[in-house]
Amino acid sequence: MGVTIGKQTKLLVMLMIMFFLTVPASAAQEKQEKVPVLINFKEKTDTELVKAHGGNVKHEYTIIPAVAAELPPQAIDALSKNPKIDFIEPDGQAQILADEIPWGIARIDATAAQSAGVTGNGIKVAVLDTGIDYNHPDLKANYLGGYDFVNADNDPMDDHSHGTHVAGTVAALSNDIGVLGAAPQAGLYAVKVADSSGSCSYSNIIAGINWAVNNNANVITMSIGGTASSSTLQNACNNAYNNGVVLVGAAGNSGGAVIYPAAYYSVIAVSATDSTNTKTSWSCYGPQVEFAAPGSSIKSTMPDGLYGYKSGTSMATPHVTGAVALLMSTDIAGTVHDTNGNGKWDPAEVRLRLQSTATDLGASGRDNYYGYGLVNAYAAVRDLSSTPVDDPVVTPPESSTPVVMYVGELSLEQQSKVSGKNTFGWAVATVQVVDADGKTIPGASVAGSWSGLTAAAVSGTTDANGVVVFTSAQVKKPKGTLTFTVTGITCDEYAYDPTQNAYSAKSVTF
């Protein structure tokens, strides 16, 4: 096989390879630039194999069989053909998401939860950000340690301010000074993945998730993100979720589609509201949004013992994180909410409780702007022994009329490789099936067809995220159009309505 690179970035990496192969030898020797990549192995990682191809290993992960490395461009194709390798993709870039914020703590009723004796005690929150000023008088007592993946040391001091601000909203102390956090007795891990400019690589985010899982964090909060999807990052989030960690992520500040990692099903995506409970103009939105929270002019802790205001979905996210910490510090054992009977809050149980107690905003029910609504910390921790609200995630409503489903997202990515003197091209179609509330539907059977450069009828079943992927046959020396069309969807208790599809077909031209 040729180079396996994540979707939209495939062509870019190939161009980079061509560039490095065509520069004069003297220039190449002077620069010796290497491409940052994420290398996924089929089974165990093999750092010596990477080094043998001239690579520098940056991180070796334990929650997924992958490493972050820098490779010479010409080595990518050779290494990808090794039978130990599953796929290689570029190391994406993410940014912190802030402008300039503690009315928000009162708005989500965190103070009422604290008055009821629920403070987040015993819960460990990993803040993946620019670090934390762990000497701040409003944070110091809750600091549990951490790691700096930017400078590769054990001193995750904040050299920006963003991470300190996020940490304060989560867990600033109730100490009669400064501000009050949502969960003032929760422990804080400072996991520095972003530098002093607010930039961070996906590989550092994955390393931060890896560290948090290995250090028994209960919650990971990520007020960071990028626009490109990464299979490696998604796998890391999914594995952390499956290990019992709740992940919370910022939806983004561009006013467009939800960014990554918040857009992954295993991450709770948070949009931002202002003081009137209205989604801010800059907050990203879409079917992935699960909750809304205050994100405009939020006051919180700043480095050097100071306080200041910031705005962004970065500021909304720690409000939800704090609510999660409050809920997880309560005793679920023996209640109807402990659906698997293990005596502890699992991610799915946390999400269900927060969904069923959120204050509905916008259109009735879940919507793309506010998700299930404004997170309500006090409602979530109150009357836990009572019967829960009907599961809004898994159980379709009882009705003689089937629930409507349709294609919520359809993307088509062009792929190509060079083998010998020939170029081969193909396409990858990704289909997401959702219901009328924007909830993804696992287990749906999707039928489709390829037409144009190659023709075939295909079918597949959506995964836990409501997604199914189809890959076309490879075409030698492609020249023309390749189209994928969704021809039908079936699922028990659902009725397919193609008139509501975001797209029923998409094409790419070679």
UniProtKB/TrEMBL annotation:
<dbReference type="GO" id="GO:0006508">
    <property type="term" value="P:proteolysis"/>
</dbReference>
<dbReference type="InterPro" id="IPR008964">
    <property type="entry name" value="Invasin/intimin_cell_adhesion"/>
</dbReference>
<dbReference type="InterPro" id="IPR050131">
    <property type="entry name" value="Peptidase_S8_subtilisin-like"/>
</dbReference>
<keyword id="KW-0479">Metal-binding</keyword>
<dbReference type="InterPro" id="IPR034202">
    <property type="entry name" value="Subtilisin_Carlsberg-like"/>
</dbReference>
<dbReference type="Pfam" id="PF18237">
    <property type="entry name" value="Tk-SP_N-pro"/>
</dbReference>
<feature type="active site" description="Charge relay system">
    <location>
        <position position="314"/>
    </location>
</feature>
<dbReference type="InterPro" id="IPR037045">
    <property type="entry name" value="S8pro/Inhibitor_I9_sf"/>
</dbReference>
<dbReference type="InterPro" id="IPR015500">
    <property type="entry name" value="Peptidase_S8_subtilisin-rel"/>
</dbReference>
<comment type="similarity">
    <text>Belongs to the peptidase S8 family.</text>
</comment>
<dbReference type="InterPro" id="IPR022398">
    <property type="entry name" value="Peptidase_S8_His-AS"/>
</dbReference>
<dbReference type="GO" id="GO:0004252">
    <property type="term" value="F:serine-type endopeptidase activity"/>
</dbReference>
<dbReference type="InterPro" id="IPR041326">
    <property type="entry name" value="Tk-SP_N-pro"/>
</dbReference>
<dbReference type="GO" id="GO:0046872">
    <property type="term" value="F:metal ion binding"/>
</dbReference>
<feature type="domain" description="Tk-SP N-propeptide">
    <location>
        <begin position="31"/>
        <end position="71"/>
    </location>
</feature>
<keyword id="KW-0645">Protease</keyword>
<protein>
    <submittedName>
        <fullName>Subtilisin-like serine protease</fullName>
    </submittedName>
</protein>
<keyword id="KW-0378">Hydrolase</keyword>
<dbReference type="InterPro" id="IPR023827">
    <property type="entry name" value="Peptidase_S8_Asp-AS"/>
</dbReference>
<feature type="active site" description="Charge relay system">
    <location>
        <position position="129"/>
    </location>
</feature>
<dbReference type="InterPro" id="IPR036852">
    <property type="entry name" value="Peptidase_S8/S53_dom_sf"/>
</dbReference>
<feature type="active site" description="Charge relay system">
    <location>
        <position position="162"/>
    </location>
</feature>
<feature type="domain" description="Peptidase S8/S53">
    <location>
        <begin position="120"/>
        <end position="373"/>
    </location>
</feature>
<dbReference type="InterPro" id="IPR000209">
    <property type="entry name" value="Peptidase_S8/S53_dom"/>
</dbReference>
<keyword id="KW-0720">Serine protease</keyword>
<dbReference type="Pfam" id="PF00082">
    <property type="entry name" value="Peptidase_S8"/>
</dbReference>
<dbReference type="InterPro" id="IPR023828">
    <property type="entry name" value="Peptidase_S8_Ser-AS"/>
</dbReference>
